[in-house]
Amino acid sequence: MRYSDWGARSARWSGIRSETVDVCGTGVHYLRADAGSRVRPGAPPQLLIHPLAAGGTFLLDLIRPLTAYGDVIAPDLPGSIFGHTGTPRVNAPRVEPNARFLRAFTDTLGLDRVILHGWSLGGAVALRFAAATDRVERLVLANPPLPARLTAAQWVGWQTLGRLAIAVGPAAARGLLRFWGRRAIDQKLRILERFDPSELDTMGGDPSRIAPENIELWTDQLAELRSDPSKMAYAATAFGSVVSGIFVNRRPVFDAIDRITAPVLLLWGAEDPLVERQAVDQVLARRPDWHLHVFASAGHAAPLEVPEEYVDVVGRWLGHGVDLSR
Predict the structure, then answer these.
(1) How far from chain centre, in Å, is Cα 196?
(2) Measured between alpha carbons, how far is 86 from 76 in angstroms, rounded to an integer?
């Protein structure tokens, strides 16, 4: 779904436009909004990375407010279910290929400095990209997947059955979707059409705070996806890649955490059932120079539940170097 001005879809998104650029022979769709009139010349753009397999439209509520601090760019990563970027390789939805994609994307747009935001599984991509480049001036990680402590039994389980599940999961998902894909989409459509927030309680927080314009957009995007439900398999590939990094092959993730030199703001919803506080604390013990802000009443979808608070916290951190309380 593309608009020359997303204000045609909702006034809350006015000034946001869809653009396309060729990156290494692949057409890449991204959302863009220009910096506000009070932004100092030369301010680095805000580069927003959506949850893997979702799409840049999941970040629409953040784009316009963040123009107070610079241009805002939100690409559809390869393997995004609701996006319009080509997926040239079967492994494209994984973390490391997407981190390499961001290098090529920023090369193409001539972005030599960015404020990088990564939400949810997109935080895993942002983390790896920030560790591999000097282009990231500051890094914001919102509810990112983080490696937690494992008991000996858990470690053995992930190294055996966990590895097997990750290896066969994407292929099994592709097989199941041939028969079950449209039914799964129809079920999700019924949930969105009646929008009972309790149906989204797996994300924690209060989903009723998500703007109805987002629910309507997701409904339309799911209806479009119904013509090609095989794209849903991208989610299994992306999820398997992230799970491997936090439970199985953990060393590259810890190495990335250790290598990052840019200031980091870690945002976490206190009611997030998917990212445990002990994982957050473990990373902060490893990197005590990172800042943490806790959204007291939000869950995993904090950028959608409390976008105003998200932008306010980021703005104070960028503009005044506020040492946010843990």
Answers:
(1) 24
(2) 9
Q: Where are the alpha helices (DSSP H) in 6-92?
A: 60-66
Q: Is residue 90 part of a domain?
A: yes
Domains contained in the chain, number: 1
Beta strand segments in the chain, E: 17-23, 26-33, 46-49, 72-75, 114-119, 136-142, 264-269, 291-295
Task: State which residues form the domain around 87.
Answer: 6-320
CATH number at residue 10: 3.40.50.1820
What are the distances in angstroms from CA 142 to CA 159, 242, 325?
A: 28, 15, 16
- What's the pLDDT score for residue 198? 60
Task: Return all residues near 171 (Cβ < 8 A) that are at least 6 apart.
Answer: none
Which residues are registered as beta bridge partners of 136?
A: 114
Asked, for residue 183, whether it belongs to a domain, the answer is yes
Low-confidence ranges of the chain (pLDDT < 50): 320-326
- Cβ–Cβ < 8 Å for 206, 197: yes
Rounded to 10 deg, the angle between the 95-109 and 121-131 helix axes is: 60
Alpha-carbon torsion angle 260, 273, 180, 185, nearest 10: -90
Which residue from 4, 36, 19 is spatially nearest to 105, judged by alpha carbons?
A: 19
Please answer whether residues 275 and 300 qualify as being in contact, where contact means their C-beta atoms are separated by less than 8 angstroms: yes
**In this structure, what token pair is assigned to residue 184?**
């799964």
Residue 111 lies in a domain: yes
Evaluate whether 63 touches 74 at the Cβ level (below 8 Å): yes
| Whole-prediction pTM | 0.90
